[in-house]
Specification:
By secondary structure, this protein is α+β, with helices and mostly antiparallel strands. It is built from five helices and seven strands, in the order H-E-H-H-E-E-E-H-E-H-E-E. It has a seven-stranded mixed β-sheet.
């Protein structure tokens, strides 16, 4: 464990404490959720936490638990804090929270092009289940050109009690 890794603390995402996580969400996604959709994911059956280092929100995640099947709905880490082990720490925290809610397996979808996240998920025990064709929209970087689509990889991890 690096000193950076050990410095994280966690705060539950609530109606009162979500603004910084929502800003990270907007910065992390090409098609972010609306603030209303984000806030709707703060109450059961959803759960969310934000990772804090030295008083600064550096990441967050949102999960959904439906009868023990947990979905990692969203996870984000600020760009300046990526590559420091926070993603792995946040996943471990997510696994523990999922187990506390009687979760027995975790599902997620990830962009096929997000190789860093895929590697993190694979080394954290997720296995590829399916490829969902043309799931994510990619905005064209050229004015007047049509948007394209990107595949999603569906992954699963069984939680061991």
């Amino acid at each position: 464990m690096t000193p950076e890794y050990q410095a994280l603390s966690y705060q539950k995402l609530t109606q009162q404490y979500f603004q910084n996580a929502f800003l990270l969400h907007q910065q992390s996604h090409s098609n972010p959720w609306s603030q209303t959709a984000f806030v709707d994911c703060l109450d059961k059956p959803y759960f969310g936490w934000q990772a804090i280092k030295k008083g600064e929100v550096v990441g967050y995640y949102i999960g959904l638990n439906v009868v023990g099947e947990v979905t990692l709905m969203d996870i984000g880490i600020s760009k300046k804090h990526q590559g420091l082990g926070f993603g792995r720490d946040m996943l471990e925290h997510f696994f523990k929270q999922s187990q506390l809610q009687n979760g027995f397996e975790i599902w997620l979808e990830v962009r096929e092009s997000n190789s860093r996240a895929i590697k993190l998920y694979e080394t954290s025990g997720f296995e590829l289940i399916e490829q969902r064709k043309n799931y994510y929209q990619l905005k064209s970087e050229v004015a007047g050109q049509p948007d394209s689509k990107e595949d999603a990889l569906i992954m699963k991890k069984v939680l061991v009690p």
